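User: My instructor asked us to take a sequence, write out its structure as tokens, and then describe one feature of it. I'm not sure where to start. Here is the sequence I was given:
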Amino acid sequence: MEFRQLEYFTEVAKQLNFTKAAEQLCIAQSAISKSIKKLEEDLGVLLFNRIDKKVMLTAEGEVLLRHARRILEQVRHAQEEIEEMRGLEKGEVRIGLPSMVGSYYFPGIILDFKKRYPHLQFTLYEQGTMKVQRMISNGDIDMGVIVQDTIADDLEAVPFLEEEMCVCVPKGHPFAERESVTYEEVAREPLVLFQEGYFQRELIAEAGRRMGVPLTVRFETNQISLLKSLVARGSGITLFLHMVVANDPDLVAVSLQPPVYLKLAIAWKKHAYLSLANQEFLSFLMERTAAR
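Assistant: Let's start with the prediction itself. The structure tokens for your sequence are:
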């Protein structure tokens, strides 16, 4: 069993598609197919079921995937630790950020961190907080921003931000002159929302289920600028963190009743090796948070 075979295998398991895996790895599909076939022959088991052009992991494949992820993660940590012996001239921070926090809270922090450590690579993954948790657990990213109330048992987390989640409406909307609106009132309005899996979407969807009110979702997208434009043009209302709406002259932020404050934390995998680059970014974030 070779290291490269495990890399190819985990990518196919992630994509469940040989062609997409080859594209991600920038190699020929035939090379991946041969590598997986050789791995199956060496182990004497079938790792993937290939039925009607669909690729699914077998039970044996699931077992190997768990071990392969741990092996690849340990190798990556070893490489990072060796590089760190030469100081912070090399290294990578891989972090998952929800759209709103990533767009309105982190840009200045990241730019200032890069000024301090210009040689470090910084890779951002924009996902919902639940997806970020899964990515940390799977070793796909080193750290990520998650909701403090939903921290999985296999994660360590440090809180750093609390921000109100508000109803976002255009000027002239009946809610615009109100101090607060109820969840039921929001659920009965035409809505433009993030896609499923984002806290914003789940918050109002849960309210709708609880009250037996079917949501009228006119548009869904993860692009914040597009959501803001749709709200401003009267296509529907949405929920945003207050920081997203604060300086927008075309939109009004109205509190929910009862109000919702999103408590966010920076999280990483419990007992996992956290590289020096990631430790430095964590310290930098805490410094900036304390200075606010």
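For the description part of your assignment, you could build on this observation: The first helix runs from residue 3 to 15. Try explaining in your own words what that tells you about the chain.
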